[in-house]
Amino acid sequence: MNNPSAHTSPAPRRRVAVIGAGPGGLSTALAFHRAGHDVRLFERQDAVRPIGGAVLLSLPVLSILRDMGVDIHRLGAYAVTEFRNHRGRLRTRLPFNKKAEARAGIPGWHYGMLRSAALERMLDVIPPELIQPNKRFLRYEESAQAVTVHFEDGSQWEADLLVGADGIRSQVAQQTFGDLGLFHCGIQVWLAWCHCENMPPDVGWISHSRTVQASFFPILHEGKPAVEWWVVEPWNEGQTPPSDTKAHLLKHLDGWADPLPRLAAATDFERNCFRWEIYNRPALKSWSRGRVSFVGDAVHPVSPYAAYGMGMAIEDGWWLAKCLEGVDLAEPAALAKGLASYDRQRVAFTNKNAAMARYMGYLFHRTPWPLTVLRDVVFDHTGFLEKALTEQYLKDAELQMESLPIQTPSLLRASI
Ligand SMILES: Cc1cc2nc3c(=O)[nH]c(=O)nc-3n(C[C@H](O)[C@H](O)[C@H](O)COP(=O)(O)OP(=O)(O)OC[C@H]3O[C@@H](n4cnc5c(N)ncnc54)[C@H](O)[C@@H]3O)c2cc1C
């Protein structure tokens, strides 16, 4: 792993333009602001709205949020993640890693929360004057000295570094790398939450039938226990969404083990359910070019399988600022070196996660019928799933946690 903290001398205050105020943009703006730079966060909408349903954030992301001054106290709930079949048969448990827990000073591994709650906590520590609403990015021009960003309203801003955090259909990425090559992954996700009594304690499920995933995880909603749940189903691009979401999901959950059907029955579908079709793009070898770099979905949209887009976007922003610590952003050679260090830190790791998540999506939702029988026998009766999850996902994430260049203040130990 890189050693970005090798840069120790303070850097001169320079101008950083961040396009897009999703989790990646908020994290980037916050990290560069804390590093002392003159940051502007440009958002096309008229306000930054914390929206979205269920997310799981893992220890590295929580450690990073805390390092940036975000209050993570009672932000989410932790539980053991269990993989089961739709009848409730246990396939495997994702273990907690005691070393990673001790390193973070945070118990558990996955924390369930609402995307909106995490965004609100980030907004709490971002000075409002950094955020520039109603600024739709159009294009940029770059010289050796600076990058000038142009907006739809005719205004422009000159920066030393431009960060594209404008999501899956990133216009900044399109200008930098050309056609995004987005492709539909053949699945869609329903994300919902509710209050529900008599839940199994301290446990979250990721459970599968032949073609559908239905899962739940405890969360805190405004400090009180609640449950997030989600359904992943095969879905073709252009397919018409159902007119009655509740009936559609209850049909999927018919015969599913408790508590999944109860959760669907207890949900306010008008307010607390979101639909999200999954697209990916071909992996990039580098995310940085000249004075421009990227975070989040703009360069690595992911399927929700074990590679949580929100968490990775937050990590990207923090790592970008970390890799540029002590670097004079106005100086092209130093900037290029810092950005190369960021690319080394993030690109391969993130591409691997995105590819693994895509593979899991195909495996669980698009496997041809006769093979699903064989697949489920293997998952139900062998240690294959546990081995794949531990080796393909958990090991890398734990290594990342253990080597995060963050000091855990003793006062904050076990603080969530
Ligand atoms: C609405 C929404 C809900 C989601 N809900 C969940 C969820 O519940 N659970 C889960 O696991 N994952 C969810 N995801 C996915 C996950 O949160 C994403 O992977 C994550 O949001 C990626 O963060 P990002 O900052 O890279 O991009 P985004 O969150 O997409 O943010 C991009 C931002 O850029 C702005 N923008 C775009 N184009 C321009 C432009 N030209 N000029 C200026 N601004 C621009 C957008 O308005 C947006 O604010 C959701 C994503 C979205 C977009």
Describe the structure.
α3 (98-104) runs parallel beside α12 (384-402) and α9 (309-323) packs antiparallel against α10 (332-365). The chain contains 12 helices and 18 strands. Strands 6-5-14-15-16-13-17 form a 7-stranded mixed sheet. It is an alpha/beta fold and 416 residues long. It has a single domain (4-407), classed as FAD/NAD(P)-binding domain, CATH 3.50.50.60. Flavin-adenine dinucleotide binds next to α1, β3, β17 and α9.
Low-pLDDT regions: 411-415
Number of strands: 18
Oligomer: single chain
| Helical residues, percent | 25-40%
DSSP helical segment count: 12
Number of domains: 1
What are the bound molecules?
Answer: flavin-adenine dinucleotide
So, the CATH homologous superfamily?
FAD/NAD(P)-binding domain
Label the structural class: alpha/beta
How would a crystallographer describe the biggest sheet?
Answer: 7 strands, mixed
The secondary-structure element order is EHEEHEEEHEHEEEEEHEEEEHHHEEHHHH
Reading off the top of the CATH hierarchy, the class is best stated as Alpha Beta
**Range of strand content:** 15-25%
Instruction: Give the integer mean of the pLDDT values.
Output: 91
Q: Gyration radius, to the nearest Å? A: 21 Å
Span between N and C termini?
28 Å
In CATH terms, what is the architecture? 3-Layer(bba) Sandwich
Strand order of the largest sheet: 6-5-14-15-16-13-17
CATH T-level topology: FAD/NAD(P)-binding domain
Q: Which geometry do the CA atoms define?
A: globular
